[in-house]
Amino acid sequence: MTTEHIEIVRDVTTPTAPLDRIEVVQLTGARGPAGTNGTNGTNGTNGAPGAPGATGATGATGPQGPIGLTGPAGATGNVGPQGPAGPTGPTGPNGAAGAPGATGSAGPTGTTGPAGPTGAAGANGADGRTILNGVGAPGAGLGSNGDFYIATGLNLIYGPKAAGAWPAGVSIVGPAGATGPAGATGPAGPNGTPGATGAAGPTGPTGPNGATGATGATGSAGPTGSTGAAGAAGATGPAGPSGITICTSVTRPGSPFEGQVIYETDTDLMYACTNGTGPVWKALSLPTAWTNLTLLNSWVAFDAARTPQYRKVGDEVEIRGLIKSGTSGTVAFNMPVGFRPFQTDETFAVMASPSIFGYVSITAATGAANVTGSTTFTYLSGIHYSTVA
Fold this sequence. Notes:
Elements (H helix, E strand, L loop, with lengths): L3 E6 L11 E6 L104 E4 L13 E4 L4 E3 L11 E2 L73 E3 L13 E4 L4 E7 L4 E5 L6 E2 L7 E2 L7 E5 L2 E5 L1 E3 L5 E5 L11 E7 L3 E7 L5 E5 L5 E2 L3 E4 L3
């Protein structure tokens, strides 16, 4: 059993003084029965959150996941090799019998029998008569008495001739007779020779195709090649040539490039730079305007559409037009200075009417153009020559 006592200690000198202590002494004895549970106390306030704990170790690898769904069907494999040829079909039926052969030729004629004995000579017969013939009727002087004559063109027979005269002709064509009865059927001819063998029957049908070969396995896809490195940027190309530069003879470009072309508005001329250092400019010739020729010695323009004219392109002179009515062999026009041939005279063959050649001769010294051609018309078109060597 358990014995407990309470010891109260007081200051005896001061009875009213408070107790110095209360000492509780527990003596061990037998444990009494457990008391009933007391009521739960009210919950205390939540404490402040503790500091985060250290990161736990990595967990073990989980188990293998389930097998995925079956992927789509692969591409169809290549066609298998051709199956073996089917067996040969059966032989076709015999062809139809050939047509009967032609009748064989007749056998050879038998040998002639021996001649019989010669009979006794008969009595002399009366004089014979002549049968004459011709296309038309017989003439009176033809034949002798007792003769007959057949006119084949008249189908008549005359005769006999008597007393030197021919009687009237009698037709030798009788009336058409009645149709006779049908003749009896002749005996059957001998069998012909056997016909040729009929053509071979058609080839039997082709045997069935062999079984399709198994589909080949799909080859694995090759690995994708790596992307090549980007190439370095190309160098910048040279600047293209500029167009024609418009300027004056005073304001030409000071530092032109070779090949640059300028047009001077005050001189109406064009130049090209042939050397950038210097610079060196070369004049470019433009065609002059077409100028009418002054015609002489009764030569005139053929019509307004083909008026005779000339112009200069660089160092070359061109002449065009059609003239008429002048005096052949005379000067038709004069070329001005600067438009005349260089040093020597020039002669040109031209077309003239009717379908003949004419000639135009231009003198280098004076520019006189002598025309030998047709007064109907003479062409000047096509004449061209150089004014320099």
